[in-house]
Amino acid sequence: MSQGLGNNTADYARLVAALRDDHGVPAVSVARVSRPDWLRNAAGLVDPNYWRCALRPRPVLDWYLKRVEEAVAEARELCPPNGSISLIGHSAGGWLARVYMEEFDASDISLLLTLGTPHLPPPKDVPGVIDQTRGLLNYVEKNCAPAVYTPELRYVCIAGRYIQGAPLTGSTVATADEMLAVDASSDVVEAVMVSANDKSPPPGPTLRARFIGQGYKQVVLTLQL
């Protein structure tokens, strides 16, 4: 299991317990990462490609890929003969798992399950959009195997609901035929379809949407089954 940015091993204790106790997974191994470990990524600041938004995963993220390799090696030891390994990646850990599978031996990995992972790079030449991966997702898109379901390697991406960010000031109008996920009090995802035939003015952005819009303009979620 590979963590999301800023997460540590202990954050996944409940998920590990659920996989073992509720779903009968015999062995679960999580990459050993602490929160201070993520400070190692600051090494990318001295790479000119960081400022050009053309950063490559290696060598900046070699430390993380090594932790994933250690977790996979542990899973191999615990795996029954002729068994296969399922790799779970949360958030950025999903596309980092794709980098791992491209760079290391992944012949016995039969499933990559990603949780809330942005697999597509942010759009270019769009005002206000910031590539917070500094080019890493562009690298993954161009150099790693596509995140598509095949008989040999099953990709499953689970994406939850999200809030579309909005500019801090001013008003925004949703484009025609655009599906927007909205916050809901229940566990069921609700959505509003803005139709080209609907002439009523769309609701203005909420304060929460304006706040989120300042930090997460670049997030793109894809659902692949």
From TrEMBL:
Pfam families: PGAP1
One cellular component term from this protein's GO annotations in UniProt: chloroplast
Start and end residues of each GPI inositol-deacylase PGAP1-like alpha/beta domain: 69-125
InterPro entries, sorted: PGAP1-ab_dom-like
Residue spans crossing the bilayer: none
GO MF terms held by the record: hydrolase activity, acting on ester bonds
Protein name: GPI inositol-deacylase PGAP1-like alpha/beta domain-containing protein
